[in-house]
Amino acid sequence: MTFFSYKNGEMHAEGVALATIAAQVGTPFYCYSAGALRAAWKEFADHLKGMNAEVCYAMKANSSLAVVRLFGELGAGSDIVSIGEMRRALAAGIPARRIIYSGVGKKPSELMAALEAGVGQINVESSYELETLNAVAGQLGVKADITIRVNPDVDAKTHAKITTGRKGNKFGVDIDLAREAYALAGKLPNLNVVGVAMHIGSQLTSLDPYRDAIVRVRELVTQLRADGHKIDRFDIGGGLGIVYAQEKPPAIADFLAMVARETAGLGCALTFEPGRRLVGEAGVLVSEVILVKPGAAKTFVIVDAAMNDLIRPTLYEAWHDILPVRERPQAATIRCDIVGPICESGDYLAQDRDMAPLAAGDLIMIRSAGAYGAVMASTYNTRPLAPEVMVDGTRFAVTRPRPSIDELLSAERFVPWQEPVKS
Ligand SMILES: Cc1ncc(COP(=O)(O)O)c(C=O)c1O
Ligand SMILES: N[C@@H](CCCC[NH3+])C(=O)O
């Protein structure tokens, strides 16, 4: 089902014309389709029936409270990587016990906040963190349920900046050192080992790296049990890719069937932490053309969304499909760069793109922007964060309004000098 489509020549999100939202909210803005979010969730949920498994939505992909709440109401837990995200999960109604706390560098104060809130599972990534967590749990008089995230050293065949399961990546405990780490965890009185975790990268378009990683971790589970550890859960992580251009990511059904096959007989409950796959194609960024500047070498279409709103094109050389909001089926195309107003040459949304000619005032829609779009935005050049809108059927809600520049400025102070307090 397509949730963003032309109707009478105008691009709609479900039953609402994007031009109508633009007129009310201004541009740029992010727009999410509740129907698309539900459909992505349903695909997971339908194929998980009969499996001993749960889905903890990795909200780093899109932490809009409205989005997290929608998944929570459908039965999702949450994978978080900061106390800010934990607060979002709780605010959105996710029960603390359904929250998994991941992350390569958790401070003692953050571990304490997580234990105080009662998060269900902490995925530990080093021996140092095991000791720290044990000490913090001891102070609070609680026992922390943990897994150790192992780094299985497989090539996820994705962009170098978002691969996480190779020896050279900072993530997890090297699989060759995992038994030692578990031995330590087993001796620490305030930790309760419940399982093992992995996460090998993001935007994966092949099942092979997952399979290789699962096979390695499966062998480890057997060894760990022989060592006397209770390994009841296997957290597979997230990472399943989406379509930006011509990619052919695995169907969720095939992915889950493969995981079920490879973990059959292991006797572990499974956890999945999808982020991008649940939200990526359910969101777009809408922007207005400010002007078109023909240059000697290139034509620049200068729009009011910029790298501060969507950093993926310049950070990962990512390709996002861009369509005019008013349909232009017959128009001959021109080759252009679609760029923002920021003073950096890296400020582009597309380079050398063939587009129907655009003019000042035209609206464009940047597709597959629901994941790692708004969450990675900044206020660089003192540009207020783009608002977020959710469409459901024929209605829409502004779930995060555009802050005014006054609000941005009022968060700051003119040099409020202080004498340092001597400790
Ligand atoms: C531990 C962990 N789980 C889940 C995810 C979600 O990844 P994705 O959005 O690729 O599904 C990430 C991010 O890559 C992660 O670091
Ligand atoms: N931010 C990345 C994904 C990182 C995944 C987080 N571990 C992207 O936009 O593709």
From TrEMBL:
The keyword Zinc does not apply. This is Diaminopimelate decarboxylase. GO terms for biological process: lysine biosynthetic process via diaminopimelate. Substrate binds at R276, R312, Y316, E344, Y372. InterPro entries: Ala_racemase/Decarboxylase_C, DAP_deCOOHase_LysA, De-COase2_C, De-COase2_N, Orn/DAP/Arg_de-COase, PLP-binding_barrel. It catalyses: meso-2,6-diaminopimelate + H(+) = L-lysine + CO2. Keywords: Amino-acid biosynthesis, Decarboxylase, Lyase, Lysine biosynthesis, Pyridoxal phosphate. Its EC number is 4.1.1.20. Pyridoxal 5'-phosphate binds at G239, E273, P274, G275, R276, Y372. Specifically catalyzes the decarboxylation of meso-diaminopimelate (meso-DAP) to L-lysine. Residues 29-370 form the Orn/DAP/Arg decarboxylase 2 C-terminal domain. Pathway: Amino-acid biosynthesis; L-lysine biosynthesis via DAP pathway; L-lysine from DL-2,6-diaminopimelate: step 1/1. The active site is at C343 (proton donor). It is an enzyme of class 4 (lyase). GO terms for molecular function: diaminopimelate decarboxylase activity; pyridoxal phosphate binding. It comes from Reyranella soli. Homodimer. Its cofactor is pyridoxal 5'-phosphate. Belongs to the Orn/Lys/Arg decarboxylase class-II family. LysA subfamily. Residues 37-279 form the Orn/DAP/Arg decarboxylase 2 N-terminal domain. The keyword Lipoprotein does not apply.
